[in-house]
Amino acid sequence: MKTSFNFYLIKEHILLVERFNRTLCESLAKVSTNFKQEWDLFILSVLLAYRTLKQNTTKHIPFDLTYGRTATLPISFIMETYPIQPIDKNNFQETLQQRAYTLLSTLERK
Length: 110
Hints:
Elements: H1 7-31, H2 43-51, H3 62-67, H4 92-109
């Protein structure tokens, strides 16, 4: 029995992973501008912001697709939640950065 790989699909998956890694790195760089040596402290906040933001490609929120429900987080009791609306591809990084900053600043005050 001969096994064959579809290299086109493998390449597509690699490109998707690379695109996500680039988005993650860019977001971490923007959020941790004042804390260059402590960028790893912001990973969970950036991932949370990414996972709870509606994506342009799927028109869905990754958290909703993964768990089948809307994310209810303790932070929603402390601060107003964001309206769910599609985000322009050009403003995605800025929106993700703003959500991470808001989350961090709210948590620091509490």
